[in-house]
Design brief:
Blueprint (H helix, E strand, L loop, with lengths): L2 H13 L3 H23 L2 H16 L1
Helix pairs in contact: 1-2, 2-3
């Protein structure tokens, strides 16, 4: 299974209410998202907060 297919499977599971699948996506992408946000805010704590807020919004 490719990474894209695996991610799609996780997203579909999240849509069905699988919290474990959401946790897996967060673990997979949190570091990448924080690094991306750091390009714009240059503050590690703020970047982590922004990334966390993005994941919270995605979960809702």
């Amino acid at each position: 299974m490719s990474a894209d297919a695996s991610d799609l499977s996780l997203v579909r599971r999240v849509q069905r209410g699988d919290k474990g699948a959401f946790d897996a996506l967060v673990l997979k992408y949190q570091h990448k998202l924080v690094k991306l946000v750091m390009r714009y805010v240059r503050n590690p704590a703020e970047a982590e907060d922004i990334a966390q807020e993005a994941f919270i919004k995605a979960y809702r």
